[in-house]
C-alpha cells in the first residue's frame, strides 16, 4: 500500500542533455578527491610509530611544565593520563605529521597565545557585535554525523559604511578578530574530546558578494590564528556560492595546501548551495537563506527529503485532515525556478477544491515557504512543484504539523 504522505511523481517531459561548463568540470574535479576521513582518536588505532610520538610529546610536556605545572587547554589538563588529553595532543601531532619537536613547539606557542589572548574567558565576553551575530559568523545546528556547524558570510562588508565601522582601524580589527575567535570557542565548547566522539566542527563559508581586496588583511589574520591555534578542529570546509574566478584562485593556492587539507574542501557554485549542504546537513538544520527550513520559531520536526527531476511535476499529498484542523507546512526546493501551488481537496465528492496558494513561479533566491490553512471540512492538502520547464534535477524537502480543532 502506498504511503499517502509520499510525493507522487508525474513526469511530463524528457530533459535534454547539456554540456557542462569548464568551471563546472573544474569544481567537480575538486570534489572527486578522496574525502577526508576523520580520526577516531582511539590510541588502539594508532601505528606503533604514532603511539611512540604521543608518548614522547607527553614526556616533553612533563619535562617542560612539571607534574604541578599549569598546562590546560579547553579545560582539559594536558598532563593528565586520560583520553581527553590524548585527543588534544593527537590534534597537534597530526597537524605536524607526528613530528614530535614541531608538534611540541606548536603546542607551546598555542598555550602562550591562549594565556595572552585570554582565550578561556572570551566566550563569556560582550564584545558589542550584535549586528553581526547570526549574519557574519555563527554556530547553527549540526551536520548529519553530529558535528556543530559554523556559518561564515562576509558579503555584508561590501557596504563601505559597515566595513569602516568594523575594520576602520587596527583597534577595531583586533576587536573583530577577538569576536571571531569567540564564535569558534563557543563551537569548540560543544565538542566531546573523546575517542569515537565528535571532536571537530564543520565550516560553511558563503563567498557571495565577499569583498576580497578589502578583507584580505582580516582574512589572513583569521586564517593564521586558526591554523596556528586550532589544529584539526575542522572536519570539513564547505564553500558555497563560489564565483567563477574561484577556480583560478584555487589553482594558485592549491599547491601550498596539504592533501589532508584539500581533502576537507567541498566547493559549490552559485545556485547549488542547498543540494551541496543537504549531502552533509539535514534540511531542517540548514538556514532558510541557504535553501533549508531552519528559522526562528521552528516547527521542531524532521523534514522529508525528495528530488524533483528535470521535466517532472511532483505532488505531495497530506491526507487525513479533519474538519476544523489547522495544517502548518514548510516546503523548499533548492534553486527553485519552478512553479508552486497548494490546494485543499475535501473528502466529499460534491465539495469544491480550494486554491490555498495559486500557482506562482518561485525565483532561485526565494526562501522556504511556510504557510498554514484551517480546514472547514475533512480532506487532504496537495502541494505541487512543477519542474517541467527545467532540465535540472533539484533537491527538495517538506514537513508539516496538523493541529486539531480545540472546539468540541
Automatic annotation (TrEMBL):
CDD domains: SEC14. SUPFAM superfamilies: CRAL/TRIO domain, CRAL/TRIO N-terminal domain, Supernatant protein factor (SPF), C-terminal domain. Its main location: cytoplasm. Pfam families: CRAL_TRIO, CRAL_TRIO_N, GOLD_PATL1_C. The keyword Acyltransferase does not apply. One of its GO terms (biological process) is cell division. It is found in: Cytoplasm; Membrane. Residues 274-404 form the GOLD domain. Gene3D superfamilies: CRAL-TRIO lipid binding domain (3.40.525.10), GOLD domain (2.60.120.680), N-terminal domain of phosphatidylinositol transfer protein sec14p (1.10.8.20). Coiled coil: none annotated. Residues 124-298 form the CRAL-TRIO domain. One of its GO terms (molecular function) is lipid binding. GO terms for cellular component: cytoplasm; membrane. PANTHER family: PATELLIN-1 (PTHR45932), PATELLIN-6 (PTHR45932:SF4). Belongs to the patellin family. This is CRAL-TRIO domain-containing protein.
Amino acid at each position: 500500500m502506498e504511503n499517502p504522505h509520499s510525493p507522487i511523481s508525474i513526469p511530463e517531459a524528457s530533459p535534454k542533455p547539456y554540456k557542462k561548463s569548464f568551471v563546472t568540470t573544474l569544481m567537480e574535479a575538486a570534489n572527486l578527491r578522496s574525502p577526508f576521513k576523520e580520526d577516531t582518536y582511539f590510541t588502539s588505532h594508532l601505528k606503533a610509530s604514532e603511539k611512540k610520538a604521543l608518548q614522547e610529546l607527553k614526556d616533553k610536556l612533563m619535562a617542560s611544565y612539571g607534574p604541578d605545572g599549569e598546562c590546560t587547554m579547553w579545560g582539559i589538563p594536558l598532563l593528565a593520563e586520560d583520553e581527553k588529553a590524548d585527543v588534544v595532543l593527537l590534534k597537534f601531532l597530526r597537524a605536524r605529521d607526528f613530528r614530535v619537536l614541531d608538534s611540541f613547539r606548536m603546542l607551546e606557542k598555542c598555550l602562550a597565545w591562549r594565556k595572552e589572548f585570554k582565550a578561556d574567558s572570551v566566550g563569556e565576553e560582550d564584545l558589542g557585535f550584535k549586528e553581526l551575530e547570526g549574519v557574519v559568523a555563527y554556530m547553527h545546528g549540526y551536520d548529519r554525523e553530529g558535528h556543530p556547524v559554523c556559518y561564515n558570510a562576509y558579503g555584508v562588508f561590501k557596504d563601505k559604511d559597515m566595513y569602516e565601522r568594523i575594520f576602520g582601524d587596527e583597534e577595531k580589527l583586533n576587536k573583530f578578530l577577538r569576536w571571531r575567535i569567540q564564535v569558534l570557542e563557543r563551537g569548540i565548547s560543544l565538542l566531546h574530546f573523546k575517542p569515537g566522539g565528535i571532536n571537530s566542527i564543520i565550516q560553511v563559508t558563503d563567498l557571495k558578494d565577499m569583498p576580497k581586496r578589502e578583507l584580505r588583511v582580516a582574512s589572513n589574520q583569521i586564517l593564521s590564528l586558526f591554523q596556528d591555534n586550532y589544529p584539526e578542529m575542522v572536519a570539513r570546509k564547505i564553500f558555497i556560492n563560489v564565483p567563477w574566478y574561484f577556480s583560478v584562485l584555487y589553482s594558485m593556492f592549491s599547491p601550498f595546501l596539504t592533501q589532508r587539507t584539500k581533502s576537507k574542501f567541498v566547493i559549490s557554485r552559485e545556485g547549488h548551495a542547498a543540494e551541496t549542504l543537504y549531502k552533509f546537513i539535514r534540511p531542517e538544520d540548514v538556514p532558510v537563506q541557504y535553501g533549508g527550513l531552519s528559522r526562528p520559531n521552528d516547527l521542531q520536526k524532521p523534514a522529508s527529503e525528495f528530488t524533483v527531476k528535470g521535466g517532472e511535476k511532483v505532488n505531495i499529498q497530506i491526507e487525513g485532515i479533519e474538519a476544523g484542523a489547522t495544517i502548518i507546512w514548510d516546503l523548499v526546493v533548492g534553486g527553485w525556478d519552478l512553479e508552486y501551488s497548494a490546494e485543499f481537496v475535501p473528502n466529499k465528492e460534491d465539495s469544491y477544491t480550494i486554491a490555498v496558494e495559486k500557482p506562482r513561479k518561485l525565483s532561485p533566491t526565494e526562501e522556504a515557504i511556510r504557510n498554514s490553512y484551517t480546514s472547514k471540512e475533512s480532506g487532504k492538502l496537495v502541494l505541487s512543484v512543477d519542474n517541467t520547464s527545467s532540465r535540472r534535477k533539484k533537491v527538495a524537502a517538506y514537513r508539516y504539523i496538523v493541529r486539531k480543532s480545540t472546539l468540541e
